[in-house]
């Protein structure tokens, strides 16, 4: 709680809430297999919240999506609440992989369970290779930390959970999943680039706020991603 209510934490949450509200209103990609449903701009930056506030950032992602639904007049069911989990788990992955906590088991367990659930489904069994996408978060977990790779692992974690929820709640056919394979490659690469870019922007904004207001540092800012606009002369 101290991290959230620090000056930097409040600054981050204010900026994040504003962007989340706008991002959740802007559709980007149509969600294949569901008429009238789309991925929003929020997918391009949501998971990065975990990198700044840890578990509080994970919660902020869920609260942002929940608030957007309520403000939009949507009557939320238990299924709708469960559907908050893909982005929240993506934020969790982004947080834990950035912290290089290799003892963290959940970031590896989530994609493994997602693959198992996909392969246990009769439709998923006929498009089993689709779920191999979810080896990406596992592989990234053991690679040197690179911001783009961390973002890629986060968005594919969200993809794994979202796909399994989709498989078990919406009637589909194997050819739908086969046809989605090239689409997923493009959309998830774009989402990863968006998460990377937004994290860089937020990192530098919060660092600039520190420089102006000299606020305390309870929110994580990775200094290696701070752009030096005026490097020191030798």
Key traits:
2 strands, mainly alpha, two-stranded antiparallel ribbon, 234 residues, 63% helix, 3% strand
How would you describe what is shown here?
This protein is mainly alpha-helical. The chain has one domain. The chain is 63% helix and 3% strand. The protein is built from ten helices and two strands; from the N terminus they run αββααααααααα. It has helices spanning 7-23, 49-53, 55-71, 78-82, 85-98, 106-120, 122-125, 135-141, 147-169, 174-213; strands spanning 27-30, 38-40. The protein has a two-stranded antiparallel sheet. Strand 1 and strand 2 form a beta hairpin. The longest helix has 40 residues, at 174-213. It is globular, with a radius of gyration of 18 Å.
The major sheet is characterized as:
2 strands, antiparallel
Strand order of the largest sheet: 1-2
Span between N and C termini? 42 Å
Number of alpha- plus pi-helical segments: 10
Count of strand segments? 2
Instruction: Give me the strand/helix succession.
Output: HEEHHHHHHHHH
Question: Low-confidence spans: pLDDT under 50, at least 5 residues?
Answer: none
Shape: globular
Strand proportion:
under 5%
Tell me the domain tally.
Answer: 1
Task: Provide the residue-averaged pLDDT.
Answer: 83
What radius of gyration results from the CA coordinates?
18 Å
